[in-house]
Amino acid sequence: MDKDFKPKVTHYHIYRKAIIAAIILSIIAGGIYGGKNLSWKQIAADEVAVVVNNLTGGIKLINRAGAILYYPFVQDIYILDKREQVLKMMASEIDERHPQGSPLMIKTKDGGDVVLDLQIQYMLKPELAVHVIQNTGAGNIYKQKWIYDYTRTICYYCFGELTIDEFPISSKRDVKLQKAREEINTMLDTHGLFITSINLSDYRYYREYAEKIQERRLADKEVEEQKTRASAAKENQRKVVVEETKKLEVEVARFRGECDKRIMDARGSAEAKKQDAEAYLIRARFEADAEFERLAKEATAILATVKTEAEGTLLLRKALEGEGGRTLVRLEYAKRLKQAIIRSTPIIRQGVETPQSIQRFKYIEDAPKIDYMFPEPPDAVLVSPMKPGPDKSP
């Protein structure tokens, strides 16, 4: 092996040291040169700055007021306005691009043409200033690219949902303004912008539209007056109904009171009559029981009397069945004969009837009849019409 051999590594270290020294010298020289050209900018309180490093590609957000230093060739600084700004879309905004102004012309859903003067108030979100620079570009290009285009488009179809005669109604316009603002903010949120308000300063349409709308307003006014009168009439009707209802309630309450009083009186009278009826029933029961007891005793007495009389009659019958009965019959027969009238007529010739004999028989027929069922008493004297009886005259 050759002892005089020298490795090449030594030359490599020498080259590396030389390169490092050259880089350090170039940095020192660039710093000395850039220090001569070092610049600064003033950031206001309503501004935000974005600093871009052209060597490293780094981006820095400065959201404070004050002065900032930067290298003009190494760094770029972009300042954006973060205060509330106004975008005017009006006929009075006349410039080279819009010699007749820049109002918003829309077409309503019923085919009418309406010109709107709008004022859009918007703000930049400071925390998204870096995104605005990267996505949109430097300067105020975001105003034309996002604010102007989005607001005109969305306001066009939001207000186009109204009819030509609904524009004079402020409540309907306010609803569409709120809807347009919400939709625009939804679209601009990802771009670092925010709409604070949308103001409709004026609206215009053709003269024919104006005349028709004026006629419609007059008709609506008449309708409102009629509605007011109808409302007043309904209120009066409601008042009358309330009064009559109160009167009815009073009358009903009074009638119910009278009915309750009558019911109570009827119940009291019914209770008194019920008590009287119960007392009468008790008294009648006692009287009926007493009458029944009296009649029962009287019937018992009558029954005993009748039985006694029947027994006496039976005994009398048994007594009359013998000689005592015949004796009584004869006695009765004698009493009858005692009351009899006996007359006699002398007869001149036997066998010759005379008027006197006829009269005699008549007298005999008028005399009381004698019952021949019983035997004749021993001292009875019969008078024959043919034979004269014995003369017992003194």
Walk me through what this model shows:
- With 394 residues, the chain is α+β, with helices and mostly antiparallel strands.
- The protein contains seven helices and nine strands; from the N terminus they run αββββββββαααβααα.
- The chain has helices spanning 9-37, 129-135, 141-159, 170-188, 207-320, 323-339, 355-366; strands spanning 39-43, 47-53, 59-62, 66-70, 75-81, 85-89, 104-107, 113-124, 193-205.
- Strands 6, 7, 8 and 9 form a four-stranded antiparallel beta sheet that branches.
- A hairpin with a 5-residue loop joins strand 7 (104-107) and strand 8 (113-124).
- The protein starts with 8 loop residues before the first helix and ends in a 28-residue tail after the last helix.
Concise structural overview:
The protein is α+β, with helices and mostly antiparallel strands and 394 residues long. Helix content is 55%, strand content 16%.
